[in-house]
Amino acid sequence: MNIIAYLDFYKNELKKTAFEVLTLANQLKDQFNANVVAISVNANDTKTNELKDYGINNIINISSPLLEYYSSAAIAEALFQYSKTFNPDLFIFPANSHGLELAPRIAAKFNAGYIADVIDVITEGNIMTFKKPVYAGKSIVTAKINSQVKVISIRPNVFTAKKKPIDNLAVSNFTPELDESHIKAKVVDTKKNVGKLDVKEADIIVSGGRGMKSAEHFNLIEELAAVLGAATGASRAVVDDGWRPHSEQVGQTGKTVSPTLYIACGISGAIQHLAGMSTSKYIFAINKDKDAPIFKVADYGLVGDVFNILPKLIEEIKKIKG
Amino acid sequence: MKAKKKPIEEIPAITIENLVEITKMEIPSRTRLNKIFGDTDEDIQNVVKLLHEEAKVI
Q1: Best of B36, B37, B43 to mutate (most A CBs within 10 Å, chain A)
Q2: How far is Cα A89 from Cα A44, in angstroms, rounded to an integer?
Q3: pLDDT per residue over B7-47, tens digit each?
Q4: Which pTM was predicted?
């Protein structure tokens, strides 16, 4: 079996999902005695060296000046061109914004079956099946891919990255034959959220809902997030009201997250919100309504006024953090 | 009446390859701890202790 692990590694920013994709690829490599190639795009040696700890010794760096700015169509074409020499049976992408764009393009190019947002891979003999949440997380389906080439994207923060250091890391460049016609949409400007953790990849998320009452009160959410080294999130209601940016929105129409700890402050727990965070490992809810649906999915909860609880909670956590 | 006379063209459905097949559907088995407290100082300390010592997440 030949496996391509796509590392979300664009412009030398190594995302945490890269290690998760590698960990799964490694696991399958051992089970199926597979050949694994990890793919990066326009990465430099310093960064690729960081991958040495994750057991994959063959990295192909797709290198092209046309890929200076992200283009899913062009990267998919480059991957397709490389694949002709490697004959992959399985592609693994992260189910983040880049992976969710690239994976279906690759599936279409190979007429392959594609399963998005995979949370578990089950292997029995030579058969692989994949689990993914459906119906806003209320149900889990197990599915198999019938085509020879299989494409999956894995939900971030679900496959815990495990280190497996190796001695030799071979990085080769692959120069695809690309021209302007492959750039279907061109990125003309990028703005980065400096110093802010992406909710999609954070281990801990502190989210606020309408119970925070105004945009100004989110300083409490930010303070708690800062103490925990967490990302800040928000429910749709507060994003719609313009209190928080859309990049922080968690839920069916925002981002789907799976952190180790999700802290919901003043969030009632509408089904659309739960759809985006119900696979979190631990959920801690603070709400003044004891009947709020969020408590039905919570591991820990405090029933009371967030404005009374949060400052005390921050102090208690500070004591533990020393 | 015009609608009744409107001819309905029948076209054969295309057959598509079943690339992905669902083999099982289940309700998530993960049960939550559901440890819900009030808002006293003691409750807050208790939750922080549980997050630190039981869940080991902070």
Answers
A1: B36
A2: 27
A3: 889 999 998 889 999 999 999 877 899 999 999 999 999 99
A4: 0.86
- Six token digits for residue B57: 């997440």
Let me know if residue A197 belongs to a domain.
no
In a domain? residue A67: yes
Strands A150-154 and A113-118, how do they pair? parallel
- A51 lies in the same domain as A117: yes
Summarize pLDDT for A253-287 with one digit per residue, the tens: 999 999 999 999 999 999 999 999 998 999 999 99
Q: Are residues A33 and A119 in the same domain?
A: yes
Tell me which residue in B22, B38, B45 faces A304 most closely, judged by beta carbons. B38
Q: Considering the domain boundaries, does residue A245 fall inside one?
A: yes
Q: Residue B32: closest CA among chain A residues belongs to which residue?
A: A299
B21 close contact with A: CB closer than 8 A: yes
Instruction: Answer whether residue A241 is part of any domain.
Output: yes
Task: State whether ipTM is beyond 0.90.
Answer: no
Looking at the fold, whether A98 and A233 belong to one and the same domain comes out as no
Indicate if A70 and A121 belong to the same structural domain: yes
Here the tokens at position B16 are 């598509």
The verdict on A246 and A310 lying in the same domain is: yes
Give the domain range for residue A296. Answer: 204-321
A20 in the same domain as A101? yes
Is A267 found in the same domain as A129? no
CA distances A311 to A43, A44, A216, A222, A227, Å, are: 43, 44, 15, 12, 12
Hey, are the CB atoms on B27 and A139 less than 8 Å from each other?
Answer: yes
A157, A158, A160, A166: CA torsion to nearest 10: -90
